[in-house]
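User: Show me a protein chain along with its predicted structure.
Assistant: Here is one chain, sequence first, then structure tokens.
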Amino acid sequence: MPITATAALPEAISAAAITAFIIFCRIGGCLMVMPGFSSPRVPFQARMFLAIAATLAVAPLLMPSIDQITSGLSPPALAQLIIAETITGAILGLMGRFFFLALQFMATAAATAIGFGGIPGSLAEDTEPAMAPATLFTLTATLLFFLTDQHLEVIGALIETYEVVPPGEGLNTNIALRRLADTLAASFHVSLQVCAPFFVYSLVINFLVGVANKLTPQIPVYFISMPFVLVGGLLLMHASIDEALRLFMSAFISWLAKG
């Protein structure tokens, strides 16, 4: 009897390790592209240990149900399950990243509209330099992502996905693509709302500069007005950035709560 129990122990450990790795695939796939976690400023080892820690934290909740799915699977079926779980987690992380990419895109356009087009950018979260206003918006939004504990909500949302998309059932590509498209549309909608004051300001100020240039063609009004346009854009940013980021985070939190 002790010999049987001893022989069954390695099999139980192996099954538990496989189940934990299946959980790690979905969590790691999500954190691999989720904003904040996926920043190149975070060392790879830190991201890896964070994914392992999150896996070990939620494993007791998920292992009983996943054990029933992984038991008796052949190696090809197990490899297919690993790939499907990684893609499922990556899709959730990508939907969250859409919000921050859309904000960065629209903030870059707004920075160009208020006169920052010729000013060199700086590195913040990505490897490509971005204009200072875009860096300010995205970096502050990433900071608020952690200050409002949305990184914990991401883990909770990952746990809930096991009820919506259980392992082994396969990923419905039509539903996944529809969710990605809806999230992309929602992210650009809220990002346009955030940056709309800068576009309106740019239209009004450039119209006034054009009228002044027509009235006094002897004076290069456009070049003279550039510092004033830039200062006006900075004042507008100072007045609106609080409400703009509050609107953005409210939309992101609402999306994350709805799943």
